Amino acid sequence: MTNSTATSTKPTKLTDHTLASARDGLRNKDFTALELTNAFLDAIERLDGQINSFITRTPEQARQAARQADEAIAKGQAKALTGIPLGIKDLFATKGVRTTAASRILGDFTPPYESTVTQNLLDDGAVFLGKLNLDEFAMGSTNLTSAFGGVENPWKRHGSDAKLVPGGSSGGSAAAVAAGLCLGATGTDTGGSIRQPAAYCGITGIKPTYGRCSRFGQIAFASSLDQAGPMARTLQDCAILLESMAGFDPKDATSVNQPVPRYEAALGRSIKGMKIGIPREYRVPGMPADIDKLWQEAASWLKAAGAEVVDISLPHTKHALPTYYIAALAEASSNLARYDGVRYGMRAERPSLDEMYEATRAEGFGEEVKRRILLGTHVLSSGYYDAYYLRAQKVRTLIQRDFLRAFEEVDVILTPTAPSGAFAWDEKPTDPVQMYLNDVFTVPASLAGVPALSLPGGLDSQGVPLGLQLIGRFFGEEDIIAAGHVVEQAAAFATTPKGRPALHASH
Amino acid sequence: MSDYRITGETGEWEVVVGLEVHAQVVSNAKLFSGASATYGGQPNEHVSLIDAAMPGMLPVLNGEAVAQAVRTGLGLQAKINLFSRFDRKNYFYADLPQGYQITQFEFPIVGTGLVKTELPDGTAAQVGITRLHLEQDAGKSLHDQDPKRSFIDLNRAGVALMEIVSEPDIRSPEEAGAYLRKLRQILRYLGTCDGNMEEGSMRADVNVSVRKPGEDYRTRCEIKNVNSVRFVMQAIEAEARRQVEVWEAGGTVDQQTLAFDHVKNETRPLRSKEDAHDYRYFPEPDLLPLQITQEWVDGLKAALPELPEEKRARLEGDYGVTPYESGVLTAEQPVADFYEATVWGPDFASHKGQKAPEDIARLAANWMLGDFFAALNRTGTHVENSPVSALALRELLSLILDKTINGKIAKEVFETMVERGVAGKPTSAKAIVDEKGLRQVTDTGAIEREIDAVLAANADKVAEYKSGKDKLFGFFVGQTMKAMKGKANPAMVNELLKQKLS
């Protein structure tokens, strides 16, 4: 465990800023938005050839936005994110900018519309540097299923040059933030796609309550689970981003009409008397000792801050993974039916309609996506619907009930984010089922729809980051941010990936 | 007429029919997008990003379409389900942009109901409604624009449809026709569907089977997308005949989907069993379950227009029209409105439930079923763009009632009104009467003078009449009327003639 203490608040390089400190620096006119943006564009230029976190870079657009930000700041009209350079997961439709979902099938699709989440960020003055890599259609736990190639985790193991995976599906977002290529990024989480890569890359990410962020313009994987959220270096940065991203959207019938709280204000809120639950079912056999130790340590940090730590039970946890894969893939098989080569995206020309469909989808989708479409189609097909889909729906209700019961007793649940740290590209399990186990701790909260965050707690014995997960009750984002902040302070995770300077401070 | 039978070699067969009617909801926007639901337009003119299933687009339910479905349910005396849900029906087709149709499968918004029908011979029947659910329409493939390619028009994609499913209660082509006409009448009264089958805003899938009377149901076949009442009736006949032949030849009717060719007057298979779809339904995750309140339903119910049944009963009770007349007058709401406006004037709605003055109510009914409809037919107009307005007709009838003109002159005046109305110069009855000097003569002296002259000029006939040839009375009336250019009050002519001849 490497704990270091921040000693200075003035980074020497612009890319070393946190989002919050950059915001302050811009307002104090310590530097201009254009300087800040250029610093990140340079960093992308220098480092992204290796990391491969960007699918599409938009430097011209970014500089233009930065100049506008500088004008706004000069006029005293700065908004929450004015001049802040961000990366956007390439699952969000961005007006006039190619949007691929990391799939060949979308070809050069350039939407004439903007997703609500990215529009909210733009409305708050954010500067978009480009579109970030991901697992194809957000399906994967490694970011190795992208049609644009895998993303490399900026972290290295002690004494090894092996390329590590950044996690998935928001692996490009996590790696870009960790490598200092942007101050924050959007992610989407279906079964852990924000939290797991955040853990693997040593950054922070929040999957908010289902319905908190609009899904309009976000390319669908599994509609009843997908939820956008922020990824950044610190919890404060995530809170700032989430506040901007969230909100009711009449264009999404599942978005919730409830005011957005000031998440940033939850940082530093006292957690005295808060009840923290430790679910016994998350102690899986074979969990690395480092992770178990970190988990206990985190509990003790919370206790030291005045919280009460209690053992709880989430009895249906062991059914979460199969339930998730049935529910998510059923929806995915349907959501991906629209990629038929008829209206947009790539088309494989063939003499008949059926042949055109088959060839387009065969050539356009990657292996993992095809596997999931087949599974999803199978679980919905007549003769199997009752055995799989209907049963999964029922189990999902039981899992939700587990959480509702638990939250009658506790305010926040503490678990590890993933059963291990990042593994190497060539260690990727060949068995897809083994691969799916990466999501074992994140999936239950997704099925329940409750908010959860991941933040870095420390390093494992090989020197790669380990994540801690805090799960809250419906719309309990402020609780997990308050508790998370205590953990963040105590962990004082300031270690940076090899090859780039300190994140929080020079020391 | 439930005794419709097909006589085959092995005896009589009964036909069993159930209908699934797709009725396009009258609304400004589509079911899940803000795009216009207007018929026609250039291909792909009325298509939103949602209708085209662009990546990341989400459906948002149109509340007015829901209200229309509930109104229709109420009009069908059906159970309104406060909880309903949308499901996805997954299949690939070029004109189905999402790769699935959003429909209601397990939990429809409207449950069981009833439609009372009347056959042309006056026999009453009824058809049970199984359910009504909301769903989105698909687009249209255009196969005739290019020698090699097909094009897709998504104007209809996402338009709200109500699928109204009947019980297999129909036993003859006539009953099917009567049911469809009645359903269309109800929908039009409610203003929930324009019932325009030519534009495809109402079309039917027809399920047909045959059986020996008293037997259980045999295998049914579904004839898809039949778009006129007449074709539905013909299709049932053709299909029932085909099935009887198959059974009687010792074969088995296979459950299949058919199309009706109205030129050849036969049904033919649309797709084979091998293509049978596994639709893979599941709850639509982009929409929350639809929950409505009883209060909202009650509000819609209170604001419901008067339906044909009620209107008929009221016209018979309050206006003294015959069942036949009430049937004709309520066939379409605008006709009933025209009739009531003729009787009461423009504020007819405020007289609802009051007994109408019998003389004008009767006169108006006679005129509408007679000269008025004849004039509409002749001029190719409809009650809503009639060359003679209800108020103009009302004035004409009032001239008859106050004896300004007699019925015969009134017909002449009416024809002039029609002519001028068609020419775009509507003229009031009074103006025409004045202009042509058609006022009825009720001056006893004047009539007596003419009678005297007629009797004097026909002394021989008077003698014949007096010797018992009663029929000649009409001759004297006619001569008097002719002498007075038809303007004499016929009753007075009659009375005075009787006096003079006695």
UniProtKB/TrEMBL annotation, chain A:
<dbReference type="Pfam" id="PF01425">
    <property type="entry name" value="Amidase"/>
</dbReference>
<feature type="active site" description="Acyl-ester intermediate">
    <location>
        <position position="193"/>
    </location>
</feature>
<dbReference type="InterPro" id="IPR023631">
    <property type="entry name" value="Amidase_dom"/>
</dbReference>
<comment type="function">
    <text>Allows the formation of correctly charged Gln-tRNA(Gln) through the transamidation of misacylated Glu-tRNA(Gln) in organisms which lack glutaminyl-tRNA synthetase. The reaction takes place in the presence of glutamine and ATP through an activated gamma-phospho-Glu-tRNA(Gln).</text>
</comment>
<dbReference type="GO" id="GO:0030956">
    <property type="term" value="C:glutamyl-tRNA(Gln) amidotransferase complex"/>
</dbReference>
<feature type="domain" description="Amidase">
    <location>
        <begin position="35"/>
        <end position="480"/>
    </location>
</feature>
<dbReference type="InterPro" id="IPR036928">
    <property type="entry name" value="AS_sf"/>
</dbReference>
<dbReference type="InterPro" id="IPR004412">
    <property type="entry name" value="GatA"/>
</dbReference>
<feature type="active site" description="Charge relay system">
    <location>
        <position position="169"/>
    </location>
</feature>
<keyword id="KW-0547">Nucleotide-binding</keyword>
<keyword id="KW-0067">ATP-binding</keyword>
<dbReference type="GO" id="GO:0005524">
    <property type="term" value="F:ATP binding"/>
</dbReference>
<feature type="active site" description="Charge relay system">
    <location>
        <position position="89"/>
    </location>
</feature>
<dbReference type="GO" id="GO:0050567">
    <property type="term" value="F:glutaminyl-tRNA synthase (glutamine-hydrolyzing) activity"/>
</dbReference>
<dbReference type="GO" id="GO:0006412">
    <property type="term" value="P:translation"/>
</dbReference>
<comment type="subunit">
    <text>Heterotrimer of A, B and C subunits.</text>
</comment>
<keyword id="KW-0436">Ligase</keyword>
<dbReference type="InterPro" id="IPR000120">
    <property type="entry name" value="Amidase"/>
</dbReference>
<comment type="similarity">
    <text>Belongs to the amidase family. GatA subfamily.</text>
</comment>
<keyword id="KW-0808">Transferase</keyword>
<dbReference type="InterPro" id="IPR020556">
    <property type="entry name" value="Amidase_CS"/>
</dbReference>
<keyword id="KW-0648">Protein biosynthesis</keyword>
TrEMBL record, chain B:
<comment type="similarity">
    <text>Belongs to the GatB/GatE family. GatB subfamily.</text>
</comment>
<protein>
    <recommendedName>
        <fullName>Aspartyl/glutamyl-tRNA(Asn/Gln) amidotransferase subunit B</fullName>
        <ecNumber>6.3.5.-</ecNumber>
    </recommendedName>
</protein>
<dbReference type="Pfam" id="PF02934">
    <property type="entry name" value="GatB_N"/>
</dbReference>
<dbReference type="InterPro" id="IPR023168">
    <property type="entry name" value="GatB_Yqey_C_2"/>
</dbReference>
<dbReference type="InterPro" id="IPR004413">
    <property type="entry name" value="GatB"/>
</dbReference>
<keyword id="KW-0808">Transferase</keyword>
<keyword id="KW-0648">Protein biosynthesis</keyword>
<dbReference type="Pfam" id="PF02637">
    <property type="entry name" value="GatB_Yqey"/>
</dbReference>
<feature type="domain" description="Asn/Gln amidotransferase">
    <location>
        <begin position="337"/>
        <end position="501"/>
    </location>
</feature>
<dbReference type="GO" id="GO:0006412">
    <property type="term" value="P:translation"/>
</dbReference>
<dbReference type="GO" id="GO:0050567">
    <property type="term" value="F:glutaminyl-tRNA synthase (glutamine-hydrolyzing) activity"/>
</dbReference>
<keyword id="KW-0547">Nucleotide-binding</keyword>
<dbReference type="GO" id="GO:0070681">
    <property type="term" value="P:glutaminyl-tRNAGln biosynthesis via transamidation"/>
</dbReference>
<dbReference type="GO" id="GO:0016740">
    <property type="term" value="F:transferase activity"/>
</dbReference>
<dbReference type="GO" id="GO:0005524">
    <property type="term" value="F:ATP binding"/>
</dbReference>
<dbReference type="GO" id="GO:0050566">
    <property type="term" value="F:asparaginyl-tRNA synthase (glutamine-hydrolyzing) activity"/>
</dbReference>
<comment type="subunit">
    <text>Heterotrimer of A, B and C subunits.</text>
</comment>
<dbReference type="InterPro" id="IPR017958">
    <property type="entry name" value="Gln-tRNA_amidoTrfase_suB_CS"/>
</dbReference>
<dbReference type="InterPro" id="IPR017959">
    <property type="entry name" value="Asn/Gln-tRNA_amidoTrfase_suB/E"/>
</dbReference>
<dbReference type="InterPro" id="IPR014746">
    <property type="entry name" value="Gln_synth/guanido_kin_cat_dom"/>
</dbReference>
<keyword id="KW-0436">Ligase</keyword>
<dbReference type="InterPro" id="IPR018027">
    <property type="entry name" value="Asn/Gln_amidotransferase"/>
</dbReference>
